[in-house]
């Protein structure tokens, strides 16, 4: 571990005890090194391109530049210097409208938030965590929740599609051709392999779904360096039919999901939500979740 990484880990540990040690970015990354106030700050820049019609293309720009920032003990000044160097590095780089720059940073670092806002970034997604606590109120009696089956595929697909369309207005989802087929295939995989999908019915009518999984962060995956090592419950998707929102369907689904996910040895549960969504932040905070990481984005990318 180099000195910058050690300084960064010490700062993160003081900022939020739920933050794990930082993880190395992909080996193909391009280094950025700057100084601010006589202190060194570093970063690694990675470019990712998604094919049109692919699953990742439903959830963001086709071309994404991501910075792993390691300002060490240089603080907000070091982060600002890194962002300035990133902007200079991108100057003259051809980037179309379907592109973006992204950076993940601890949610509790308000000073860093001010720097990112000043550089034109917006908080798009939060990774939120919840300690393993007893489930909340199960919701109204008329709402029943059961494990979903393959015969529910079409109802689940419609609920998943409704959630994706709403997210395209307030979050990361991007309207793309072929979205329904991709979402249907994802629901099919979840039914067959994770089995942790629950369907809520309001007087027998499909009203919502919760798609979940049990995961463990590992080197090389997107959770490494975001969560402490161990077993975690993941709430991938909660979707409530538009006509059923506000009626307790989400509470009923999460009472069952939390009961099933919080098993012996599970450290807690986590999920991603969008701060601009007028519905989900309030709901998830009442469910006991709190932001750990914020994913910031600038669209389109600097050029």
Question: Any overview of this molecule?
Answer:
Helix 2 runs parallel beside helix 3 (110-118) and helix 4 crosses helix 5 (179-194). The two termini are 33 Å apart. It is globular and about 65 Å long. It has seven helices and eleven strands. It has two domains: 3-125, Aminopeptidase; 143-287, 3-Layer(aba) Sandwich (Aminopeptidase). By secondary structure, it is of the alpha+beta class. The protein is 30% helix and 30% strand. An eleven-stranded mixed sheet has the order 1-2-3-4-11-5-10-9-8-7-6. A hairpin with a 2-residue loop joins strand 1 and strand 2 (39-49). The longest helix is centred in the middle third of the chain and has 18 residues, at 153-170. The mean pLDDT is 94. Keywords: Acyltransferase, Transferase. Residues 143-303 form the N-acetyltransferase domain. Pfam families: Acetyltransf_1. This is GNAT family N-acetyltransferase.
Characteristics:
globular, Acyl_CoA_acyltransferase, 11-stranded mixed sheet, acyltransferase, transferase, alpha+beta, 7 helices, single chain, 30% strand, 303 residues, Aminopeptidase, 30% helix, 2 domains
Q: How do the strands and helices of this protein lay out in sequence?
A:
Blueprint: H1 3-15, E1 30-36, E2 39-49, E3 63-70, H2 75-90, E4 99-106, H3 110-118, E5 122-130, E6 143-147, H4 153-170, H5 179-194, E7 197-202, E8 205-215, E9 231-240, H6 249-261, E10 266-273, H7 280-286, E11 290-298
Parallel strand pairs: 3-4, 9-10
Antiparallel strand pairs: 1-2, 2-3, 4-11, 5-10, 5-11, 6-7, 7-8, 8-9
């Amino acid at each position: 571990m180099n000195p910058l990484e050690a300084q960064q880990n010490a700062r993160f540990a003081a900022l939020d005890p739920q933050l794990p040690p930082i993880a190395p970015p992909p080996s193909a990354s391009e280094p950025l090194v700057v100084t601010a106030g006589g202190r060194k700050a570093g970063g690694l820049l990675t470019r990712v391109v998604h094919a049109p019609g692919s699953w990742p293309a439903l959830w963001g720009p086709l071309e994404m530049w991501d910075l792993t920032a390691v300002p060490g003990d240089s603080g907000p000044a070091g982060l600002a210097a890194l962002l300035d160097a990133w902007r200079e590095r991108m100057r003259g780089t051809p980037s179309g409208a379907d592109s973006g720059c992204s950076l993940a940073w601890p949610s509790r670092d308000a000073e860093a938030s001010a720097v990112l806002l000043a550089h034109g970034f917006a908080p798009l997604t939060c990774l939120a965590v919840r300690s393993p606590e007893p489930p909340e109120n199960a919701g109204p009696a008329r709402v029943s929740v059961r494990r979903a089956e393959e015969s529910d595929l079409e109802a689940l697909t419609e609920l998943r599609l409704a959630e994706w369309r709403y997210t395209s207005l307030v979050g990361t989802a991007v309207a793309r051709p072929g979205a329904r087929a991709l979402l249907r295939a994802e629901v099919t995989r979840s039914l067959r392999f994770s089995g942790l999908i629950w369907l809520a019915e309001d007087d027998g009518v499909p009203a919502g779904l919760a798609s979940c999984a049990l995961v463990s962060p590992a080197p090389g995956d997107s959770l490494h360096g975001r969560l402490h090592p161990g077993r975690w419950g993941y709430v991938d998707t909660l979707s409530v039919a538009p006509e059923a929102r506000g009626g307790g369907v989400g509470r009923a689904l999460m009472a069952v999901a939390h009961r099933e996910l919080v098993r012996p040895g599970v450290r807690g549960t986590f999920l991603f939500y969008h701060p601009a969504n007028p519905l989900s932040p309030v709901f998830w905070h009442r469910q006991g979740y709190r932001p750990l990481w914020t994913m910031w984005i600038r669209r389109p990318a600097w050029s």
